[in-house]
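Hi V.,

You were right to ask for the full record rather than a summary. Here it is.
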Amino acid sequence: MYEKMKQTSFKLNKRDSVHFEDNTAPVNIAYAKEVCDVAILPLGAIEQHGAHCPNGMDIRFVGGKDSPYLWMECPNGMDSFNAIGLAEKVAERTGATVLPCPMYGGHPYMHMGMPATITLNYETNMALIHDIVASASNVGYNKFILLVAHGAD
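Predicted structure:
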């Protein structure tokens, strides 16, 4: 049913992934305690980007020559880096851990009612971020970077 996880114990300065969800609980706890207690929470949005770009552009893809979605193809509001892509690069260089990205933006007045856009109201978005940080604090992370790849969040 589930594939056996290859990582079974913490190895100092080593983990299978910079992504929190790809490591086991004991590894995340030990890593936060012994190596780096910084966690990055990438924030983006699921919203329309015209007929030529995926709705998750703010969240998932990194622009550049190796990207499946290049700047030239998606000029409307695309930055060269998005939330998860930039968080991965920062984590690889610093040892921080990338928390799972909530896939909804808190910009209901900017895009509310537009087709293919999923939004949260401000209070819900702030409560979501608060709860994620509080939960990650229980793991042992003490410093947080909120990396926002969407202007209205």
